[in-house]
Structures are given as structure tokens and as C-alpha cells.
Amino acid sequence: MDLNKFEDIRPYNDEEVPGVIQKLLNEPIFRGVLSSVFPDLPAAALENLLQEIKSKDEFQTKVSYVVLRGIAKRTTVNLDCSGLDHLSKEKSYTFISNHRDIVLDAAWLNVLLFANNFPTTEVAIGDNLFVLDWIREITRLNKSFIVKRGLTGRQMLESSAILSSYMHYAITQKNTSIWIAQREGRSKDSDDHTQESLLKMLIMGGNGAIIESLKELNIVPLALSYEYDPCDYLKAKEFQLKRDNEDFKKSQKEDYLSMKTGIMGFKGRVHFRAAHSINSFLDSLEEDMPKAEKISAIAEYIDKQIHHNYHIYPCNYIAYDLLYGMKRFETFYSEKEENDFKNYITEQLGKIEIENKDIVFLRKKMLEMYSNPLKNKLLADNINP
């Protein structure tokens, strides 16, 4: 295999780490960010700490893990996971998950894996998020591989083939697990569904037909459940902007605000739950099933596993009852929890600054964000939503 084709998308190799760290230390903005997350360390001590790091694992242990644990302590009530008991620490997996936060979804998965003595994953990250030059460096240092966005036609096809080939290489040759979101970008209304184009991309780099290619990746659906989404009001605002102007496109400044708000905003309880590998399901599919039907069935199965494994919070039940004007789930929350959530929604709506602010529309969109996980879990559990 020609590994040179991965040069501009792969994570950095360990021998490249010292040079990349020195490059980052010469970046004033990066040094400022670092000082803010390690406020008790003098600049000289912080520089010495970084210069002693010789590998990606060491960087994650001494820097990333510490930073992310600090963020969890400040912005969550609890961060935990379940489902790791049916995974092997000796095997490599492709975690396909719903997508809530631009930065933290995969980062916190790695924190939880590390805390449970599992190897951390390599992470698929879109290059549209590199709003500052040094962010590309820090992500590749932190075991991320790059998904190129904004391509068209033949470029997109070639890029997808290389990306898929790299993911198969990472799983089968590097023996490292990987994480990728089930769709491009976050699901703004929390109605999570796997893009069939993702599965088509994953198939491209394998050796064999659809089933053999996907089995090679050892796919594990992963459900991420945030009690509160600090970007909910930004997502609601974007819904109205797109409603009022179909040509609306977010700027890099708005992407940066979403990243910052998602990282530093309050998230309440956060739970990650891993399903079983889908390989047994893949084996159950008929060989002569048409390709399009097969891919659709696989996407639906991944969705069902993610939806079934959601952790549902009181706010999800409350949002559902408020959205539909009923009390169907009132036994799952208290009067205080209902009032607190109503006040939360009002406060978040108050943060939206927009011309022709449509408060009814915005409130409905926010309630949909919090009720959709419940609706999808009910469907996955064969309960009438």
C-alpha cells in the first residue's frame, strides 16, 4: 500500500511530535489558550512540560486528558459511559455516533476510553473547522485524521476513496480504533440519522463486497446523550436564518463561536453508550439483496442501535409534553424540573439576537431538539411515539 497518499490527512507520527510542539509554542494564540487552561503553571514550566513530550499518547495523557477533564468538571454534572464491557481492549473498532458537539463528542469518548484502560481512538474531523491555522496542528497531534470538505465532482470521489482507504488501513494495519460521526455536520434538531453516503464511502476502501468491507471495519454504533446543549439557541437561530434566507451560510466566525460555546457552555449530565458490533447483523443480510437496499438496511440498523441506546433525561420528557401540549410523560419529571426547564428555554431564547425574531418558531425548534431523542428511542423500542 502506498502510504504517501495519506500524508496530508493522517495524524502525526510520534517522531514528528517534538517538531509540531515547537511550532505550536511559537504561535502566540496557542500559548495564550494553553496558559488559560493551565493557569497554575508558570509559562516556563508549561513550555518544559510540552517539550518533554515525545509521542501522541504522551500528549493526550499529559495535556488533552487533563484539559478535557477540567472542562468536564466545569461544564457537566456528570460524564460517564456504558457498554464497554462487551468490547475488547485488544480489538479495533469503528465507532459511528450521533453528533452533538463540534469538538467534544470524540474528545470525551477518548477521555472515557482512557479512564477505562482502553486505547484511545483516531478521530475524523472536517477541515472546515480549521478556523485558525494552529487548530489543524493540534488536531493531528491529538490523533485526528482529516476529512476534506467543500470538494466537488471528481475531487470529492478521489478524496473519499483515500479517506476510506486510510480508515481500513488504520483498523487492519495500525490496529487502532477510529471515531466518525454518522453524518456530515451536527444534527441541528437532534433527529439523528446515518447518511447512506457515509456507508458508501466506508465501503470504498475495503477488500471485497459491501458486507466484507464493512465487517473489516468492525463498526460499533455509539449513542451520545447530552442533557443540555449549550449551542441550542445558536442552532435555533440558524434555523430561522435559513428559513428566511435559503442562501444563508455560516461564517468562520460563527463556526468559531459554536466551537467555543459548545466547549465552555453548561451541558448537565453526559452519557455515552456503546452498542454491540454490527457484524452479526451484516452476516444476517441476504447476499442477493440489491446494493441500494442493503446500504439502506445497514443505515437503519445503525440508527436503531443509536436511538435504542440514548439516555433520556427529564428535559426530554418535558420538551415532548410542552411541544405537543400534553402530560403523557409527567411521571418522569417533577414540577420543579418542569419549571426549571421552562426557565432555561426562556433564558436561551433571550440570547438570540436576530432581525424579525420569531419567538414562536424559535421556541418550537428548541423543543424539537430536546424531544426528538425521546421520539426516536420510542420508535426504536417499538413504542408509539
How would you portray this structure in words?
This protein is of the alpha/beta class. It contains 16 helices and seven strands. It folds into two domains: 3-230 and 265-311, 3-Layer(aba) Sandwich (Glycerol-3-phosphate (1)-acyltransferase), CATH 3.40.1130; 231-264 and 312-385, no CATH class. The model has no long low-confidence stretch (mean pLDDT 94). The protein has a seven-stranded mixed β-sheet, with helices on both faces. Helices cover 53% and strands 10% of the residues. It has helices at 17-25, 28-37, 43-51, 56-75, 104-115, 133-141, 153-172, 196-204, 210-217, 232-244, 252-264, 279-284, 291-308, 314-324, 335-350, 359-380, and strands at 76-82, 94-97, 122-126, 144-147, 178-181, 219-226, 268-274. Strand 3 (122-126), helix 6 and strand 4 (144-147) form a beta-alpha-beta unit.
Task: Name its key features.
seven-stranded mixed beta sheet; 16 helices; globular; alpha/beta
